[in-house]
């Protein structure tokens, strides 16, 4: 794989290839053929490139951009970073690019605190380029007789920005969950909600 005329690696790549925002030339070479294409990389948004040597075609598609609005109730501060990582992993696996709520709410200050209501969650999602809003609620209460564990309730609602309505909703509970188990359940809930 060549990027802007420079060798970037051998396909399949072991991971994601990071590019600076802007136009880039891509090419693949085999012993018998070279196939060239162009991509426009947008900051914070993933793209997927497929090369079809038989058809001499390069297919470029942008990943959906998802505004993540997560509300944690009773979640230990030590577990919040774990839940953020689990959310990012699930979005990446679903081939979506995430925009954290804090970033989206930076420009319209009148919407701070808005993420707790579904209708209000669509207002910051009106920003150009956003495809979906993912509203997550994680509620945690100490498990009776097991202070290191919790009774956890997780809900995810995917809001379609173009339609202005809930496209999918998934809810799960986890009795006697550890912080790690909560992250696993959250990853599953996010994945299921984005599949629908």
Give the averaged pLDDT, no decimals. Answer: 85
Proportion of residues in helical segments: 10-25%
Largest sheet: 5 strands, mixed
Shape: elongated
Compute the gyration radius: what is it? 20 Å
Q: Helix and strand string, N-terminal first? A: EEEEEEEHEHHEEEH
What is the tally of helical segments?
4
By helix and strand content, what is the structural category? alpha+beta
Total E-strand runs: 11
Which stretches are poorly predicted, pLDDT < 50 over at least 5 residues? none
With strands numbered from the N-terminus, the spatial order across the biggest sheet is 8-7-9-10-11
Quick structural overview:
This protein is an alpha+beta fold and 196 residues long. The protein contains four helices and eleven strands; from the N terminus they run E-E-E-E-E-E-E-H-E-H-H-E-E-E-H. It has a five-stranded mixed β-sheet. A four-stranded antiparallel β-sheet has the order 2-1-3-4, with no helix packed on it.
Question: Could you please describe the fold and organization of this structure?
Answer:
The chain has 196 residues and is of the alpha+beta class. The chain is 21% helix and 43% strand. It has four helices and eleven strands, in the order βββββββαβααβββα. The chain has helices at residues 77-93, 101-104, 118-121, 179-195, and strands at residues 2-3, 6-7, 22-29, 34-41, 47-52, 57-62, 65-73, 97-100, 132-143, 146-160, 165-177. Helix 1 (77-93) runs parallel beside helix 4 (179-195). The longest helix is centred in the middle third of the chain and has 17 residues, at 77-93. The radius of gyration is 20 Å and the shape is elongated.
């Amino acid at each position: 794989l060549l990027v802007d005329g420079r060798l970037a690696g051998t396909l399949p790549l072991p991971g994601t290839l990071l590019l600076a925002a802007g136009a880039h030339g891509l090419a693949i070479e085999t012993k018998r053929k070279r196939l060239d294409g162009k991509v426009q990389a947008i900051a914070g948004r993933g793209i997927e490139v497929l090369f079809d040597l038989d058809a001499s075609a390069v297919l470029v598609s942008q990943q959906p951009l998802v505004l993540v609005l997560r509300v944690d109730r009773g979640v230990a501060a030590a577990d919040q970073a774990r839940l953020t990582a689990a959310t990012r992993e699930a979005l990446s696996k679903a081939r979506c690019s995430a925009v954290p709520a804090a970033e989206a709410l930076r420009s319209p200050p009148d919407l701070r605190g808005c993420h707790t209501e579904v209708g209000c969650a669509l207002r910051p999602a009106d920003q150009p380029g956003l495809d979906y809003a993912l509203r997550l609620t994680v509620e945690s209460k100490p498990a009776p007789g097991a202070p290191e564990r919790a009774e956890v309730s997780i809900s995810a609602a995917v809001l379609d920005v173009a339609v202005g309505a809930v496209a999918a909703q998934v809810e799960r509970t986890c009795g006697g969950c550890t912080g790690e188990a909560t992250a696993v359940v959250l990853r599953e809930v996010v994945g299921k909600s984005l599949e629908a």
